[in-house]
Write a structure and sequence with these properties.
about 500 residues, TIM Barrel, 8-stranded mixed sheet
Length: about 500
């Protein structure tokens, strides 16, 4: 990359959305008509609705011309930068002259607030790609998240986006910036989605905080929640948040998409996705699962099936003098009693303890497998035990849920404090716990094991609400904000 020393042009720089982007500033630093709580530039110092020639087209175009002479051709020239570019009253002239200067595609990165103005729409219509944003589904949230100039009304802003779509034949990639505890709840997302249906962008790009925001209450959303939120927007939505770039990992998270074809001759070169996109690839990893090796059992005349060696609740085979356990044996669901494909080391060791205890006298019985999983990505633990809400409904359970998010320390400003989010799923008919999901700090790994024990003992929401716990400011949530208890209490309200 050639580093430029120009006043109004910077890059090319790597962009999550645009590849290698050459940025062009049309306004001075922090000149904007929004003062977004998540802005990585910090609080805006010049908040204004005034459109004028903040920087002359001549100076901008000369800077760009000099930069292009260096020969480092970018994927896009991006009109963006340190403020809102549509505030420059010479926007149309600048875009027109850039298009005359080069065949490099031109993108406009804008908050979309001034697209209600015909002259701004006319200027942006000359771009190859326009990337506006929409972070709220109603006026009050708009004012809270974006803190616009008082002259900008929410409905007027939406109307401008809709009119621009009607007039513009190019691509619109609409960014939606979600913040934990602010605009990320399902009702908030549905309100945003309803407006997006009128705007009809080509892509919806879901983002969250990755760099220090203007306000410390603008919380980032963790990856699993962002993916689930992204799915609510439909098939043309994708996650663009850079969770792993700080770890030097280049990644794309594609939701509602499958791999259709692997392209190449002697080795893979590209992959074709179900939405028609073709991506370059040097390697493709495919998880196809495993099959139990039961040849010894078959040779011994022990009953088997395609899923493994048949055993009873005591881990006895069809030959009562032979026990079997682990991935080579069939598994039955704790919830339905039907076969399941769950194969985990934790299940295998539990089965081995049952088998060992029963060798000389039947003492133990296992009632089926629950399924408990934990993993960690970018210092965030994700875990699940038992049935999720959707899975439980598919099994014809009538369910209620309790969902909470609270700090793992008290008070929340303690060193090492991070939020833990917990969702519990209960059988509405008898209150029994069916499953739970959690994400957050390392303690989530043991929290999910506690949830599994509650499921196994068929504890009800009332049982869990009376859970006797020990707390300490440096190691647990507050006793009045303890996630397991509070999630149960919320579910009880729905049962009654």
């Amino acid at each position: 990359m050639i580093k430029t020393k120009h006043r109004y042009v910077y890059g090319p720089v790597p962009s999550r959305r645009l590849g290698r982007s050459l940025g062009v500033d049309l306004v001075p630093f922090k000149v904007c008509n929004y003062d977004c709580i998540y802005c990585q530039l910090g609080r805006i110092t010049n908040k204004t609705i005034e459109r004028r020639e903040y920087i002359s087209p001549k100076a901008i175009l000369q800077d760009l011309r000099d930069c292009l002479k260096l020969g480092d051709k970018p994927d896009y020239i991006t009109v963006s930068g340190s403020g809102e570019p549509t505030l420059n009253s010479s926007l149309e002239e600048i875009i027109s002259k850039i298009k005359e200067m080069t065949d490099i595609p031109l993108a406009v990165l804008t908050n979309g607030s001034l697209l209600y103005l015909p002259e701004v729409r006319k200027a942006c219509c000359m771009a190859d790609l326009v990337l506006p944003s929409l972070d709220a589904g109603e006026e009050s949230m708009f004012k809270h998240v974006n803190r616009p100039c008082k002259e900008i009304e929410f409905n007027k802003m939406i109307e401008g986006l809709v009119k621009f779509r009607e007039e513009y034949s190019g691509k619109i990639w609409l960014e939606v910036f979600l913040l934990g505890g602010v605009n990320s709840l399902k009702p908030d997302i549905i309100k945003i989605k309803n407006h997006i249906a009128k705007i009809k962008p080509d892509k919806i790009q879901v983002n969250t905080v990755a760099r220090p925001p203007a306000e410390d209450y603008a919380y980032r959303i963790d990856l699993p929640q962002l993916i689930e939120s992204c799915k609510l927007f439909g098939e043309n939505a994708e996650v663009i948040a850079d969770f792993l770039e700080t770890k030097h990992v280049d990644k794309h998270i594609l939701t509602n998409t499958r791999l259709d074809k692997i392209l190449g001759d002697d080795k893979v070169k590209q992959v074709e996705l179900s939405d028609g996109r073709i991506l370059d690839a040097d390697m493709v990893l495919i998880g196809i699962g495993v099959q139990p090796n039961i040849s010894l059992a078959e040779f011994a005349g022990i009953e088997t099936c395609k899923d493994g060696i048949v055993v009873d609740a005591h881990m006895q085979t069809s030959d009562k003098n032979i026990f079997a356990c682990g991935d080579c044996t069939i598994k039955k669901s704790f919830f339905t009693g039907k076969p399941t494909n769950l194969k985990l080391a934790s299940i295998a060791t539990m089965e081995s303890r049952v088998a060992g205890a029963n060798l000389f006298e039947i003492k133990r019985k296992q009632e089926g497998v629950i399924g408990v999983f934990s993993t960690i990505v970018d210092n965030t633990v994700f875990a699940v035990a038992g049935l999720g809400e959707k899975q439980a409904c598919e099994l014809d359970y009538k369910v209620v849920t309790g969902e909470v998010e609270a700090s793992n320390r008290h008070p929340g400003k303690m060193p090492g404090a991070t939020n833990i989010k917990l969702k519990l799923v209960f059988n509405k008919s008898n209150g029994e716990l069916l499953g739970g999901t959690a994400r957050g700090s390392d303690s989530v790994g043991e929290m999910i094991n506690t949830i599994s024990a509650c499921i196994q003992k068929k504890m009800t929401a009332n049982d869990i609400a009376q859970f006797q716990l020990g707390t300490h400011p440096a190691v647990t949530a507050s006793p009045i904000a303890y996630q397991l208890v509070n999630a149960a209490e919320l579910a009880i309200k729905k049962i009654s």
